[in-house]
């Protein structure tokens, strides 16, 4: 161990730090032995008892399919196919990420200016 190792409270033990591992003064195995491993290696018996996360009710909403969204707080936007002039699309794309939302904002303002409340909006 070295002078950079930190002492544990009241035990008088000097434990290696991750800086010691990075500096090559101790190996990662030596560091883990000194600190005690938090996670044991999985055994065949442990794997045999394992259940899929989908079977654990507490985790039901934790894991979602890729691209799947959670419950919406406000009305969900409707997905449509819309043909716009290339000049319009080019203009908004140049403004960077969020360009589709900015097109939506422009159209929302148009609807408000026309004296109508956009569908699904509370404002």
Fold and architecture overview:
- The chain folds into two domains: 1-62, no CATH class; 81-118, no CATH class.
- It is 34% helix and 3% strand.
- It has helices spanning 18-22, 28-35, 44-49, 86-93, 99-113, and strands at residues 6-7, 14-15.
- It has a two-stranded antiparallel sheet.
- β1 and β2 form a beta hairpin.
Poorly predicted regions: 1-10
> Would you report the number of β strands?
2
Rg, Å, rounded: 28 Å
Largest β-sheet summary: 2 strands, antiparallel
Q: State the distance separating the first and last CA atoms.
A: 64 Å
Class from secondary-structure proportions: mainly alpha
Strand order of the largest sheet: 1-2
Our count of helices gives: 5
Question: Any idea how many domains?
Answer: 2
- Strand percent estimate: under 5%
């Amino acid at each position: 161990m070295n002078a950079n190792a930190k002492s544990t409270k009241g035990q008088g033990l000097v434990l290696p730090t991750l800086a010691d591992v990075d500096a090559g003064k101790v190996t990662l195995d030596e560091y883990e032995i000194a600190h005690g491993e938090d996670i044991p290696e999985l055994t065949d018996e442990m794997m045999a008892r394992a259940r899929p996360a989908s079977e654990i009710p507490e985790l039901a909403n934790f894991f979602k399919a890729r691209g799947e969204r959670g419950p919406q707080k406000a009305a969900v936007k409707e997905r449509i196919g819309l043909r716009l002039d290339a000049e319009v699309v080019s203009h908004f794309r140049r403004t960077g990420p969020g360009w589709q939302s900015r097109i939506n904002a422009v159209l929302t303002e148009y609807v408000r200016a026309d004296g109508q409340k956009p569908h699904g909006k509370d404002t």
